[in-house]
Amino acid sequence: MHTRFLAVLLLLGVAAATVAQAPASTPAGASTSTATARDASLPPPEDQAKAALEKSPRHGEYIDVKMSSSPVPIRTWVSYPERKDKAGVVIVIQEVFGLTDWLRSVADQLAREGFIAVAPDMISGLGPNGGGTESVASRDDAVAITHGLTPEEANRRLNSVRLWALGLAAGNGKVATVGFCWGGARSFAFAAAQPALDAAVVYYGASPETGDLGRIKAPVEGHYGGDDARVDATIPAAEAEMKRLGKTYHPHIYEGAGHGFLRDQAGRDGANLRAARQAWPATVAFLKERLK
Hints:
By secondary structure, the protein is an alpha/beta fold. The chain has one domain: Rossmann fold (3-Layer(aba) Sandwich). It has helices spanning about 1-20, 50-55, 100-110, 140-150, 150-165, 180-195, 230, 235-245, 270-290; strands at about 60-65, 75-80, 85-95, 115-120, 170-180, 200-205, 220-225, 250-255. The chain has an 8-stranded mixed beta sheet, sandwiched between helices.
């Protein structure tokens, strides 16, 4: 009896040790960095972008858009929605990192919501041997080239894409912009440079100088992290001037979220994901209203 009791204790000890040493399982499709499943109603976080694109049922393709200011075309990713009627077009403007998998996944998510999403490589022709993002050796190189674009050249490139988008047979003739970080600033600035734009969305991008805001006709919506003082410092003056001019600008600031919260959803102890879950549905609703 005593021997059998010791044997049972020994077996229980082995089982407990095995459980203690076994690695925790990760749900299928989850990011190893977050250990949580992706929220399919949002663009994927950066580390899940490539997988999301590979699984997407929607058609996406690279096309070349002719530039008025250069013989080199703008390499552009286009994601098409699955719908039988014509759709509004959203130009998706990159962060400083160039035309990345994450930016293409944002375009695909917009297509999921019924838009034709057009993501231009804003550094097309400026990389090694006349290439774009695909030609650079590192992310730092893409950042340096992007920062070298003048506002005037960026607007010319965006307008070339806009004109091309207006000619799409599947488009309904309305075009908006949505941009992130550097692209967020460019989205706001392009609204000032192109009064025919139908809407602009700004994600954590600096506001234009107040003297430029008088040319804006499009409604502007902004989404900002509360812990992003550099960018947020530009909001009050723009908000006051847009209000004085009778123009539409709705900035939304998410407490605790940082810069780049839509791409880095695992950051800031949950605040970035909470911000994404508020900002993205608001963006989709705003664009659907303005591009219908």
